[in-house]
Amino acid sequence: MGKRTGKEKLGVLRTISYVFSTISLITFLIFSAGYIGSGITGVGFAAFRVQQRPINTRGLPTIFLSIASYRDPQCMFTLLWALKQAKYPERVFIGVLQQNHPDMDVDCLSISLQNGFNATDAELIMKWRNQIRMGRYSYLDARGPTWARYMAIEKLFQQEDYVMQVDSHSRFVPQWDELIIDNIKQLPPNSVISHYPSLFVPGEEDENGLPKDYQKIISRMCKGFYNSDDILQPSGALYALDKKESRSNPFLGAGFTFYPGKAHETVKMDPYLPYLFHGEEILFSMKMVAAGYKLYSPAENIVLHYYYRKDFPRYWDLSSIYPDFHQLQKYSLMRTKYIIGTLDYEQVENVTWTLQEIDKYGINWKDPVVKGRLDKYFTMFEMDLKNKKMGDFCSKGLPEW
Ligand SMILES: *[C@@H]1O[C@H](CO)[C@@H](O)[C@H](O)[C@H]1NC(C)=O
Ligand SMILES: *[C@@H]1O[C@H](CO)[C@@H](O)[C@H](O)[C@H]1NC(C)=O
C-alpha cells in the first residue's frame, strides 16, 4: 500500500496527539482509549487524555465551540476573540482540533506576551484555560476538514447543550453566545442554524476584530450548483439585513453551524471520509434533515470568516506527501454519493473499504420516516440530486419548512 511508504518515511516527524492538562484540585482523569482501530488510513492514535472538570456554568446553557485548524496562524486570534466577545465565557467550551507542523507552526494556545499579545489578552486565556480542550496532531496525521470536524466532536465534545462549528479563521460579534441561543430558541425545537459567514480581513478590523458595518448585510443560502464531481454545493446571495429574522435554509455550511448537542445522539460524524471537501455540506445537511432537523439561516451575523487566505498551508498540500491521497478522496466521494443516494451499491468501488460501518454513519433510507423527511426536503427546495436539479430561491424567496 502506498500509504505505508509515506507513513514510514515521515513517521519520525509525527507527534503524539494529546490533550493538555492543567492543574486543578478536583480533577478526574478519564483515559479513553483513543484508538480508532484500523479505520481511516491505518494511522493509530495515542491514548487520548480528556479532563472533566467541575466548572460552574451557573446553570447557563453551554456551548461547545468546535474549531478545526490546519496549520493556521489565525487560530489563536479566533480562540481569543471567541472568549473576548462572549457574554458568558464560562459557558463556552472550546475544542481545537489542531493539525500543525511540530516546528514550523504556532500553537493555537500560544497567546502570550512573548508572542506580542498584551497582558489583558494573555490573562483572559489563563482565566478560561480550563475550558479549552486541545487535540494536537501533526499535520501529517491530517485527513482533511471533514475528518478534523469528526475528530473534534468525537474526542473533544462533552455533551454540551449546543454545538457551534466554525473555521479556525473566524471572528465573533459581541455577545455572540447570547444572540445565537436567543435565535435558536425562537425556532422550532429541532433546528440548525447555519450560513456562509460574511467576510473579515485581518488587519482591516476595528477594535472588536470586526469589519465596518458588519450588520448591514447577511448572506443566505438560496440556491446550489453541481460541481465537477457532480456533487450539489450550496450557493447564496447577500441581502440587506433590515429585519433580524431567520429564514429557512436549504443547506448547512461547514464554516458556521449551530445546533443542539443532542443531535449527535442520532447524527454520527463519519470517520471514514478522509480528504473529503466538497460533499461534506450536502451530506451533513441531509443527515440532519433525516434526523428530523430543520435548517435555518441566522437572524443576524454571529461569526465572520476570513475567506481569501493566500499563501497559507492547506490540507490538500498533503496530496504531494501521501501517494494515496487522491485514491482515498475518490472513495470518500463515492461513500458520500452512496449515502445521499446518487450512487448505487454496484457502482461503489472497493466496498469493504469505502462503505465501512455504513449502517452506523449512513442514512437509513429504508425507514419510512427518514425517507419522508428527505422527500419533503427535496420537494421543498426543488432538488433532484440524480438529475442535477435544484430550485433557485434567491430572488423569489425561500419556502417555509
Ligand atoms: C490588548 O489588545 C487588545 C487587542 O487584542 C486590545 O483590544 C486591548 O485594548 C489591549 N489592552 C490594553 C490594556 O492595551
Ligand atoms: C481498498 O482501499 C484501501 C485503501 O486505499 C486499500 O488499502 C485496499 O487495498 C483496497 N482494496 C481493494 C480490493 O482495492
UniProtKB/TrEMBL annotation:
Pfam families: GlcNAc. The lineage of its organism: Eukaryota, Discoba, Heterolobosea, Tetramitia, Eutetramitia. One of its GO terms (molecular function) is glycosyltransferase activity. Gene3D superfamilies: Spore Coat Polysaccharide Biosynthesis Protein SpsA, Chain A. The keyword Glycosyltransferase applies. Keywords: Glycosyltransferase, Membrane, Transferase, Transmembrane, Transmembrane helix. SUPFAM superfamilies: Nucleotide-diphospho-sugar transferases. The chain crosses the membrane at residues 12-36. This is Hydroxyproline N-acetylglucosaminyltransferase.
